[in-house]
Specification:
Layout (H helix, E strand, L loop, with lengths): L1 H6 L14 E8 L2 E2 L4 E6 L2 E2 L2 E2 L3 E4 L5 E3 L1 E3 L2 E2 L4 E8 L23 E5 L3 E3 L2 E3 L3
Parallel strand pairs: 1-12, 1-13
Antiparallel strand pairs: 1-2, 1-7, 3-6, 3-10, 4-5, 8-9, 10-11
Length: 128
């Protein structure tokens, strides 16, 4: 019986899943929903001499997202996160180009403080 209760605390590959908080929101670019963008929350705290795993999501057609910790768990670890938003063009000839300014991805200025429970973070990005 104890083995079953312990195994429920682990994700794929036997990795323990930490306490997670629900994170949802909407991403817009110049006021319009940003569809198909990758949003990543990178924890800034270090635990047990290692960084925690980032959580991510892909925005829906209305710009909404729900973060996933891994394939088996939704949410993000509580604490301060650096937020990256990446949107690549669908056209293969534009491969490697970003459709949002670097201040939201490579040189992100975005942060979020995830608290226990439900969190909503909306990001209204500006192209200029």
């Amino acid at each position: 019986m104890l083995i079953f209760s312990i195994s429920g605390c682990f994700g794929s590959g036997g990795e323990p899943i930490p306490d997670l908080a629900s994170v949802t929101g909407v991403v817009t670019l110049d006021g319009a929903p940003l569809d198909g963008a990758k949003i990543i929350f990178e924890p800034q705290q270090v635990t047990d001499n290692a960084r925690r795993r980032a959580s991510s999501a892909t925005t829906e057609s209305d710009g909404s997202y729900t973060l996933e910790y891994n394939s088996e768990a939704s949410g993000a670890t509580p604490g301060t996160h650096k937020v990256l938003i990446i949107k690549m063009p669908d056209d293969p000839e534009q491969a490697g180009e970003q459709l949002v300014p670097a201040k939201y991805n490579d040189k992100t200025e975005l942060t979020a403080e995830v608290k226990e429970g439900d969190n909503t973070f909306n990001f209204d990005l500006k192209s200029k």
